[in-house]
Amino acid sequence: MSDTNRRPPSGAATLRADKTAAIAEAVLDELAEHGYGRLSMEAVAKRAGVGKSALYRRWPSKQRMVIAVVSELSVALVEEPDTGSLRGDVLAALHAVADWLTHPRFSRILPDLIAEAQRDEELFQALARCVGEPRRARAIGMLDRAAERGELPQDLDRELALDLLGGLVYWRVSARGAALEPGYFERAADMALRALGARPHGE
Fold first, then answer.
1. DSSP string covering 148-203
2. CA pair distance 166, 94, nearest whole angstrom
3. Which among 42, 43, 88, 100 is least buried, having the fewest CB atoms inside 10 angstroms?
4. First CA to last CA across the chain, in angstroms?
């Protein structure tokens, strides 16, 4: 498990991958069951079956540990769709966001982390830097390819477009707790395309 905010600790090459994986699983379980505020290094170490020193050899603090674990799995879940059409890519992207938000663990972890981040500026910045920004960076390629094909304007506000696409699913799933009924993704994709001023490839 890497920590992008600091250099690897001395002796990092000797850290056992199986222990790191066990710790990561323990972090996710503790977050899902007890939340960020009640998570402790002691509880994670006990659940992982390791000494607390094994955690500190990898990360200097609870926050660094949580961010490293959550960001590695969250970013790995992002796929950069390339179906050959903007509508196909948007549909794939919406499904991917929904899969992330309804993930058995993340559906419990993310709302808690977001709430905690509203009270903790350092945590907010760390989540944005290590989770939000890498996920968005992967998604921008989808918009760039659509612009190259002529399906989107070259001067499209890409940041606003990503807010729109992510918000269509986030608001429904996490904020409203509403069901993603059959046909929702198709309707959402078509509305997004209209909002983005998209046109069919080749026009």
1. HHTSS-TT--HHHHHHHHHHHHHIIIIIS-----TTHHHHHHHHHHHHTT---TT-
2. 7
3. 42
4. 47
Per DSSP, helices labelled H in the chain are: 17-34, 41-48, 52-56, 62-76, 86-101, 106-119, 121-127, 133-149, 158-170, 184-195
| Whether 45 contacts 55, CB under 8 Å | yes
Cβ atoms of 47 and 31 within 8 Å: the answer is no
- Radius of gyration (C-alpha) of the chain in whole angstroms: 19
pLDDT digits (tens, 9 = 90+) for 106-135: 889 988 999 999 999 999 999 999 888 888
Global pTM?
Answer: 0.79
* Nearest one of 123, 136, 144, 195 to 166, comparing CA atoms: 136
